[in-house]
Amino acid sequence: MTRTSPLALIVAAVLGGGVGFLVDHLLTLSGRPTFSPAVGLPILLVLLGAITLALAWPVRRSVRSADAPRVDPFRAVRIAMLAKASSLVGAAFLGAALGLVLYVSTRPVTPGLGSMTTTIATIAAGAVLVVAALVAEHFCSLPKDPDERDRDDAEPGEPAH
């Protein structure tokens, strides 16, 4: 399994930003107030990051320590996939919240601080989720096999020892 690429995170953030901007624009065109995320959203994003890290920790311990209990490989793959999905979700929510802030900041009327607080908290929580998920994904990766290290250190065309 390959690690989450920065390009995928950037694409998710840009798409999320476009959706956030478009939602606020359509709401304003229809005469409704702009969208403001619920207070629970940033809390849930941070909790998801914490849960992902907590689930990945036993896998890291199992890989790094010889005396730690072994983890089922299927469980480790599921946790790695959860981490990968969480990083993409975090990037999308971060982008969507940035799109909301971008739209509101381009309007002639300045928004109240209360309506912007949850949006800014969502930006921060999305960033926390992305970082936590990438760390959890790193926890679920296997170290290089010693045979592979020898092959990587050998000169091209030279046989490994």
Give an overview of the whole structure.
The protein has 161 residues and is mainly alpha-helical. It has one domain. It has five helices and no strands. Helix 2 runs parallel beside helix 4 and helix 3 packs antiparallel against helix 4. This is DUF3180 domain-containing protein. Pfam families: DUF3180.
The coarse silhouette is elongated
**Helix and strand string, N-terminal first?**
HHHHH
Structural class: mainly alpha
**Strand fraction band?**
under 5%
Q: Any idea what the radius of gyration is?
A: 21 Å
Task: Give the N-terminus to C-terminus distance in angstroms.
Answer: 28 Å
| Count of beta strands | 0
What's the average pLDDT? 87
Number of domains: 1
Strand count, sense and barrel status of the largest sheet are: none
Q: Give me the oligomer status.
A: single chain
* Unreliable stretches: none
Level of helix content? over 70%
Question: How many separate helices?
Answer: 5
InterPro entries: DUF3180 (IPR021517)
Keywords: Membrane, Transmembrane, Transmembrane helix
Pfam families: DUF3180
Protein name: DUF3180 domain-containing protein
